[in-house]
Specification:
By secondary structure, this protein is mainly α. It has 16 helices and three strands. A three-stranded antiparallel sheet has the order 1-2-3, with helices on one face. The protein is elongated.
Length: 447
């Protein structure tokens, strides 16, 4: 009876850790590796773990003569919470290092999940406003553009929070956010507060794109979890479609009201604009990390990495290399340096890479594509090309970051003990597979 109880508690603990990691945006390979490592540490040899986009299952058979045990957990919500993600990552490391036993680990995990945050919710709304203000600076907008973008972001965050509490699907939240951004920008333009409302809309589009898991989808595809990758990609496309629907509806209302929202073109980058662009990107990335409850110690390094990354991207673009390849190289830089920075500051690399690439999201391409397609005629084909360009930039960001992680985290000998599809860079979870030296001398399930 005691052995069966310990087995059930161990499987439940592994599933709860995997649930929190998956809901925070971790890749399926990272979740599976973490669960396997914890199971091995507590004496479960070779459990069967299956991770999909909405559920996790774990089964274990003590011996061929006995019936296997199986537990399933469903992922009910997906909120970006880097504080809980970091705490769970520390807990996993403490468990593997034998600093806590199973009972202490379960109690700690329960406290992490049930406790709130020290940062008040209104401060998070202001953080989203600061993020969009940084995007406004990045797009070289004036003080009025930055201020309107700040107000629009706060309004969008409060509206989406109200909708989330009423269990409205994420698609409708994105539609509402895109519509609010466009209508507020149009209203500001109608009363003469802002001359170029397109920059305000673009800043808020980047805010709405920040919560979409493009990188997780590509990571799952590269590591062999094609079902989870397809589900993540479907969610990303649906969320992006919500932004497009909301902005398109706002543009239609503005056109009927007689407010002209002029197209924003791809402004040429120059060496003179490099400094404000870097400052805007640093503010944007730092504010996103703050709004996602990232530990305070990592916010300044994230700002520095984001500023350097976009400086690399802009410097290459000035030489006439387009946008996709400079973005990919900048993302590669983020992937390489995030491994070292996150290790020194004891946070998962996922916190660094997602926050640092937010300023490079293709909000400008999406808005330009929508504006061109709204004009109709010959501009429609140009709009479609702009949307394809946005997709290529998003792919370049994800691929560049993951390749940088591959280079920064060379495959270790211990990784050969895992399945081949799990042998890759880790954005969350243990980087080493527990070898013979780190196994527990006393088994949990000893009679």
């Amino acid at each position: 009876m005691a052995e069966g109880r310990a087995l059930n508690l161990t499987m439940d603990f592994c599933l709860r850790v995997g649930e929190l990691l998956l809901s925070s945006g971790a890749g399926a390979a990272d979740v599976t590796s973490t669960m396997q490592t914890l199971a091995w540490h507590f004496g479960l040899r070779h459990p069967e773990i299956d991770v999909t986009f909405t559920s996790l299952s774990m089964s274990y058979q003590v011996s061929p003569e006995e019936s296997p045990l199986m537990q399933v957990r469903h992922v009910k919500q997906r909120d970006i919470d880097y504080e809980d993600l970091t705490l769970v990552d520390h807990l996993v490391r403490d468990v593997i290092a034998d600093h806590v036993d199973l009972a202490e680990a379960r109690a700690t995990l329960a406290r992490i999940v049930s406790s709130g945050h020290g940062t008040p919710r209104w401060a998070i709304s202001l953080g989203w406003g600061a993020m969009c203000s940084g995007v406004g600076i990045l797009l070289r907008g004036d003080v009025t553009v930055v201020a309107i973008a700040f107000v629009a972001a706060v309004c969008i965050d409060r509206l989406q929070l109200w909708m989330a509490r009423r269990r409205l699907p994420f698609f409708y939240q994105q539609v509402a956010g895109g519509a609010v951004a466009t209508l507020l920008a149009a209203a500001a333009a109608g009363v003469g507060l802002v001359e170029n409302p397109s920059l305000v809309i673009t800043a808020n589009i980047i805010m709405l794109l920040a919560g979409i898991g493009f990188m997780g989808a590509l990571q799952d595809a590269l590591s062999g979890f094609y079902i989870t990758a397809g589900a993540r990609l479907t969610e990303a496309l649906l969320a992006t479609a919500g932004i497009i629907a909301g902005v398109s509806g706002g543009l239609t209302v503005a056109d009927v009201a007689g407010v002209e929202l002029r197209r924003v073109g791809m402004a040429a980058s120059t060496w003179e604009t490099l400094t404000p662009v870097a400052l805007g990107a640093a503010l944007c990335a730092a504010a996103f990390a703050f709004s996602s409850y990232a530990p305070r110690r990592i916010i300044l390094p994230i700002a520095l990495i984001a500023g350097l990354a976009i400086s690399i991207s802009q410097s290459i673009s000035i030489q006439g290399f387009g946008r996709a390849w400079p973005t990919a190289l900048a993302a590669f830089f983020v992937g390489v340096v995030s491994y070292t920075v996150s290790g020194r500051l004891r946070v998962p690399p996922l916190v660094v890479v997602v926050s640092a690439v937010v300023p490079m999201l293709p909000g400008l391409s999406i808005y330009r594509g929508l504006a061109l397609m709204a004009e109709g005629g010959t501009a429609t084909s140009q709009g479609l090309l702009a949307m394809i360009s946005a997709a290529s930039i998003a792919t370049a960001l994800s691929a560049g970051v993951i390749l940088g992680e591959y280079v920064a985290q060379p495959l270790r000998r211990e990784a050969s003990r895992l399945e081949s599809r799990l042998a890759g860079p880790r954005l969350v979870g243990p980087l080493r597979y527990p070898g013979r030296r780190r196994r527990r001398r006393s088994r949990t399930f000893a009679s």
